[in-house]
Amino acid sequence: MPKYEIMLVVDGSVKETEAVSVVNDLKTILKDSRDFKLDKWGLKDLAYPIKKKTRGYYFILNFYNENSESIKEFRRVTLLKKEILRHLIINLEKDYGYKAKTNPKKIIRSQFRAERYKRIKEQTLAEQEKIKKERDTTPVKLTDI
Q: Cβ neighbours of residue 133 under 8 Å, at least 6 residues apart?
């Protein structure tokens, strides 16, 4: 079951109770989620103005959800609500780097890359040692100094 993390920035000009009620309304869309966790970061200054606002309430939602339609509905509703300044939805199970944990193809690919990296590193170290030995064995001429 995919794990999601959603960050919401709610308009800072509304009261905190109103911001929490907006987030709770959005939580009802994700009713089929498991292990739901809500973190309130509070009112913070924005790095840059968004819709002419400079402050916002930050919320982080963590949950597991198999229904992608509810995620699409959540995105649609957040775009419609005027109190939501920004939202970011991240699927934590989709890892496109070396740390793939659940996808067998990505595990095999990351192992292959790790072995290739190790082989290249060993070749580079061997070449550096060879160059170092050549420098040490060549006689120094007085004209070189």
A: none
CA pair distance 10, 28, nearest whole angstrom: 17
CA 133 to chain centre: 46
In whole angstroms, what is the distance from residue 39 CA to residue 28 CA?
16
Quick one: average pLDDT of 69-79?
A: 90
Beta-ladder partners of 59: 8, 40
Output the pTM of the full model: 0.63
CA geometry: angle at 79 spanning 75 and 84, to 5°? 105
Cα-to-chain-centroid distance, residue 38: 18
97: pLDDT strictly greater than 60: no
